[in-house]
């Protein structure tokens, strides 16, 4: 590599690392940095190199007070964007504390050292609900390779016993699975695809997958007309159940809750001064009915009768079983 090319790269590195709108650098600062790298430079050559960076569409902003000052203007990610990404990483229950810190450090490298200090203030790692290892991260990487290569993957799947021990489904049966896409839902990471065992489209929680192995078997592709967004909406919170068109009577204060759950395009109509009606297509599962119950009467099922009856039956069962009479 020529001295000139090395010099330009080091100038670019210095500007990325140490300059921003609130912390511009002067040419003597750049010359001193180059000297530490064993490169001699003059005021004139540095100015010429910066002009070449600008010609290469690098957003180097300059202004003059007593001397010229420079800083990187537009970056790939602005500070608010990096903050949002870091907060999402730190809040993720999918990532181990070690992996979360590693990713956060990589994201901090996208801004200047001065901005890193600002972003680091108030960062909290909530470790008590995070996994202790990187198994799920490795599984996600293998699933991504399977998606890109359109190959099937084999794995076991587990839940937890009352003793908090891993309980493998179907006696450690190996599932043969064709992954199509990932989806993030309710603080958990899922993969959607075709299961040979179930002979249908299913979802698996990535962190519950064990001993995954990539195969050379071609994946079963999604059927014609399959819409991922519609599937995610219909399978409410990733639980299987009969798909139903359900009508909900909601207090006006529940509009935000309905939009948060079903999106801004959810069909709603004003019922009266106090209520509106919402029509949604959902997986009529215990999870859905539990969500309705948690609304404490502010959202009520009015149709179809099948959903009304099932919810009423669930309430009766809960009333009977909720209190432990053996104590």
Quaternary structure annotation: single chain
What is the beta-strand fraction? 25-35%
Q: How would you spell out the order of helices and strands?
A: HEHHEEHHHHEEEEEEHEHEEHEH
Shape: elongated
Question: Mind telling me which CATH architecture of the largest domain this is?
Answer: Roll
User: Sheet with the most strands?
Assistant: 6 strands, antiparallel
CATH topology of the largest domain: SH3 type barrels
Q: What Rg, in angstroms, do the CA atoms define?
A: 28 Å
Global structural class: alpha+beta
Mean pLDDT: 86
Instruction: Give the total of domains.
Output: 4
- Alpha carbon gap, first and last residue: 80 Å
Portion of residues in helices? 25-40%
- CATH C-level class of the largest domain is Mainly Beta
Number of separate helices: 11
Query: Ranges with pLDDT <50 over ≥5 residues?
Result: none
State the total count of DSSP E strands. 13
Pick out its properties:
single chain, 327 residues, alpha+beta, Arc Repressor Mutant, subunit A, SH3 type barrels, 4 domains, 6-stranded antiparallel beta sheet, 4-stranded antiparallel beta sheet, 11 helices, 13 strands, 27% strand, elongated
Secondary structure layout:
Elements: H1 3-18, E1 25-26, H2 27-36, H3 43-55, E2 60-64, E3 68-72, H4 79-91, H5 97-108, H6 113-120, H7 135-149, E4 151-160, E5 166-168, E6 175-185, E7 188-195, E8 200-205, E9 209-218, H8 228-234, E10 242-251, H9 255-262, E11 267-270, E12 275-284, H10 286-294, E13 299-303, H11 305-321
């Amino acid at each position: 590599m020529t001295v000139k090319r090395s010099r330009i790269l080091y100038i670019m590195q210095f500007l990325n690392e140490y300059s921003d709108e609130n912390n511009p650098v002067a040419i003597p600062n750049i010359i001193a940095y180059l000297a530490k790298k064993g490169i001699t430079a003059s005021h004139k050559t540095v100015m010429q190199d910066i002009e070449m960076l600008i010609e290469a569409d690098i957003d180097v902003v300059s202004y003059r007070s007593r001397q010229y000052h420079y800083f990187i203007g537009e970056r790939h990610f602005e500070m608010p964007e990096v903050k949002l990404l870091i907060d999402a990483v730190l809040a993720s229950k999918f990532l181990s504390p070690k992996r979360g810190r590693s990713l956060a450090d990589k994201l901090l490298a996208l801004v200047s050292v001065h901005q890193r200090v600002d972003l680091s203030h108030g960062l909290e790692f909530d470790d008590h609900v995070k996994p202790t290892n990187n198994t799920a991260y490795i599984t996600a990487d293998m699933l991504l390779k399977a998606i890109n290569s359109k190959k099937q993957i084999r794995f076991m799947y587990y839940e937890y016993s009352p003793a908090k021990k891993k309980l493998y489904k179907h006696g450690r049966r190996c599932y043969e699975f064709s992954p199509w896409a990932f989806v993030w839902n309710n603080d958990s990471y899922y993969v959607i695809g075709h299961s040979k065992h179930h002979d249908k489209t299913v979802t698996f929680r990535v962190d519950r997958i064990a001993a995954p192995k990539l195969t050379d078997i071609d994946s079963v592709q999604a059927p014609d007309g399959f819409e991922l967004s519609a599937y995610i909406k219909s399978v409410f919170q990733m639980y299987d159940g009969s798909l139903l068109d359900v009508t909900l009577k909601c207090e006006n204060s529940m509009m935000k809750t309905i939009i948060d759950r079903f999106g801004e395009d959810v069909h709603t109509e004003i019922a009266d001064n106090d209520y509106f009606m919402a029509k949604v297509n959902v997986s009529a599962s215990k999870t859905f009915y539990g969500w309705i119950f948690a609304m404490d009467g502010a959202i009520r099922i009015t149709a179809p009768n099948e959903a009304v009856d099932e919810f009423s039956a669930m309430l009766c069962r809960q009333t009977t079983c909720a209190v432990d009479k053996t104590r």
